[in-house]
Amino acid sequence: MFMSSYTPRPFPPHSLIDVPLEYILDQLHNLAPDYWNQTESADCTIVIPVPIIHCKNVLTAPRASYDPSGLGRRVTEPASNLLPRITMKLHSDYLSAQSSLLRALFAGASPLDLVQTPCSPSSPPTPSSGPHSPLPPPDVESTYTIPPNLIPRVLPSSTADHPVLLLPVPDPSSIEVLIHWIYFGRTEFIEDALDNGDIEWEGIARNVEYLGLSTDIKIFLGWWYGRWRHPSRSRMRSAYPWDRYPHTAYSIYASACHGQEIEWNDSDTACSDDDDDDDDEEDDGSDEGQDIFTDDDCMSDTVEDVDMELSEDYPPSKNKALGEEEPRRGRSRTTKGLSWPLDVTEQQRQLHTEAYTELSSEAFVRA
Q1: Using an 8 Å Cβ cutoff, are 217 and 180 in contact?
Q2: Which stretches does UniProt call biased (Acidic residues) (predicted)?
Q3: Distance CA 248, CA 285 (A)
């Protein structure tokens, strides 16, 4: 619950209430190098618990584990009953400008009010960083209801001018590149991480929906997913900006989140003189193939509580030349769309998140 001493921070502040959000975002992106990884000027702390997964024939992403310490170890039960977590000292203006969930929390909303609150991709809309101002297609909507076991909250260690938020995002492994996008508005690091298989598309999409991020990042993720699903066309489209066909890219993103699929037709390719084509064909195929953990993939060793340092020059790989190896996804391309949510994954998440939900009230109070 919120501490009585915490001072809510509505966004935008009263002095900027009449300033267009597009201008505010541009200014924040321009100033990002001055604030990125500057913990001295940070005015909030985000604490992300890393779930402990006890895996036995659990459907999951191909990545076996996430090690926030960066030591190459796998995750298992924490020592001394201390929950593994990622701690980031950030700036609330950047988070509030891009995330409807964090904007509501910083403004004083009760976490309990967020349980059944859908995060609509078009509310509030945000402008594109490119020449377009894409809006979601009126007939396609992607919503996500925050499950009770993933409720964020302000921790008792918060002060009046420095809130400390417990933020149990669905996929801690992709949060670093997502925070970089929030600060800089650039997608190349996310693209590089997806291409290299460092993060999973489904994991970062879950984080995007959970945080209620703006439409721009969803358009990019739709573009990347469409490129991965159709490797024969990826070389053609990769030479053009990802926001060239925003409505189609967004439709692909929303459909993938619902376990469906929308394909680019010839008029949507980069070689066409036409812009967006609203006659995309849908494929209602289901997500048939899944990667399954074996007992050998279960996690071992321990990970202590650590802080994650964010680096401004998070190294992307060299630009992919036309004809290079296609991005890795960890699943067969015969899979039709993605299940949203993956029932088995969510059931397993609820089993092991009950433990860290109970521990959080004890471990984080001592923090």
Answers
A1: no
A2: 265-312
A3: 18
The rounded Cα 125 to chain-centroid distance in angstroms is: 17
pLDDT, one tens digit per residue, over 24-57 is 889 999 999 999 988 899 999 999 988 765 433 3
CA 317 to chain centre: 21
Task: Give the domain range for residue 168.
Answer: 14-363
Question: Quick one: angle between helices 215-229 and 188-195, nearest 10?
Answer: 30
Q: What is the dihedral of CA 102, 107, 110, 115, to 10 degrees?
A: -30
Counting the structural domains of the chain, the total is 1
Residue 88 · residue 180 · CB < 8 Å: no
Q: DSSP class of residue 93?
A: H
Mean pLDDT of the chain: 62
- Ramachandran class of 238: left when φ > 0, alpha when ψ lies in -120 to 50, beta otherwise: alpha
Q: What percentage of the chain's residues is helix, strand, coil (to nearest 5)?
A: 40, 5, 55
**Beta-carbon-side half-sphere exposure of residue 37 (alpha carbons within 13 Å):** 10
Percent of the chain clearing pLDDT 90 (strictly above)? 13
Residue 105 lies in a domain: yes
Distance CA 73, CA 54 (A): 16
Instruction: For residues 241 and 243, give the distance between their C-alpha atoms in angstroms, rounded to a whole number.
Output: 5
How far apart are the C-alpha atoms of 100 and 85, rounded to whole Å? 23
Residue 2 is assigned to a structural domain of this protein: no
DSSP conformation letters of 157-221: T-BTTB-EEE---S-GGGHHHHHHHHHH---HHHHHHHHTTSS-HHHHHHHHHHHT--HHHHHHH
42-74 exposure pattern, b = at least 16 Cβ within 10 A, e = fewer: bebbbbbbbbbbebeebbbbebbbbbbbeeeee
Q: Output phi, psi for 307, to 5 deg.
A: -95, 145
Q: Rg of the chain's alpha carbons, rounded to an integer? A: 20
Helix (H) or strand (E) holding 44: strand 44-49
